[in-house]
Design a protein that fits this description.
This protein is an alpha/beta fold. It is built from 8 helices and 12 strands. The strands form 2 sheets. The protein has a 7-stranded mixed β-sheet with strand order 4-3-2-5-6-12-11, sandwiched between helices.
């Protein structure tokens, strides 16, 4: 039955949940909810394969030659795992995410560790602040949530404005190779005392879109909540064009594993851009 629900949910998402569904008698009622409305509570479990300490080490290594100041912005911060670790390293952190549910969890985590981090709800494409930052980070697939080139161009324009002179922007990008290798028909079931979730992710190499559909049980009989998350993979050539068309005066594109020049085997890219003036 659980697999039947999962398969039905995924097929329905492709057909467009907003247009309504024709359900067979034994199929569940589906409530489409906003991304991370409920998945935020499971986000740290979902990302438990990530070694955030290594990510922090890599980021600090990349920016060290430029000797940036200590005022940083984590834009698209999730539940604050990177911001919290950087704050422990003496960085004055501001952290922003589009999901108020993610920010609520991030604030609680920081309070438990007695850290002062300025958490805010905001969109990475058009977030504004009177404060200017030495470093802006956008990590763990944040940019892949931008599906249109115009949104990426606006993101780069916006972060350029948020940076001080000589400021640095660092973001990562998932490539089609990663999605093709790991996310064609990927299924996952996670359960805990509050119910857990079922995930189905599929990647379309033609559109370069990966859709992850999360099905979560509710307290209502024969009713499930569904969150659909869509990301787009980008080739190295795409990322090079983004950098070239931006206002940033210099940039580097690296393989996230080696921190060297990327190859055809690179599944994730790290991009460092500098605002010189």
């Amino acid at each position: 039955m659980l697999q039947d629900i999962l398969d039905f949910t995924y097929i329905s998402s492709l057909d467009g949940l907003d247009q309504g569904l024709i359900r067979m008698p034994d199929q569940p009622h589906i409530q489409k909810i906003q991304p991370y409305q409920r998945l935020a509570a499971y986000y740290d479990n979902l990302m438990d394969y990530i070694d955030y300490d290594i990510w922090v080490e890599d980021i600090e290594e990349l920016v060290a030659p430029y000797k940036p100041g200590k005022t940083w912005l984590d834009i698209s911060c999730g539940t604050g795992s990177m911001a919290i670790r950087l704050a422990h390293h003496g960085i004055n952190m501001t952290a922003v995410d589009l999901s108020e549910h993610m920010i609520e969890i991030a604030r609680h985590k920081a309070q438990v560790e007695n850290l002062h981090i300025d958490f805010k709800v905001g969109n990475m494409v058009n977030y504004s602040s009177k404060k200017r930052f030495d470093v802006v980070i956008n990590l763990h697939d944040g940019l892949n949530y931008l599906l249109e080139v115009t949104d990426i161009e606006q993101f780069l324009k916006n972060t350029y404005a948020l940076l001080k002179p000589c400021g640095i922007l660092i973001f990562d990008v998932v490539t089609p190779l990663l999605c093709q290798t790991h996310f064609r028909g990927y299924r996952e079931i996670f359960s805990d005392e509050s119910g857990g979730y079922e995930r189905y992710t599929n990647y379309d190499p033609n559109s370069q879109l990966a859709e992850s559909v999360f099905t979560l049980n509710t307290d209502i009989q024969n009713t499930v909540d569904v969150e659909s998350h869509i990301q787009k993979a980008y080739e190295l050539s795409d990322v090079e064009r983004f950098c070239e068309s931006s206002s940033f005066e210099s940039w580097r594109i690296l393989d996230d594993e080696t921190l060297e020049s990327p190859t055809e085997e690179s599944e994730r890219l790290i991009v460092l851009l500098r605002k010189v003036s």
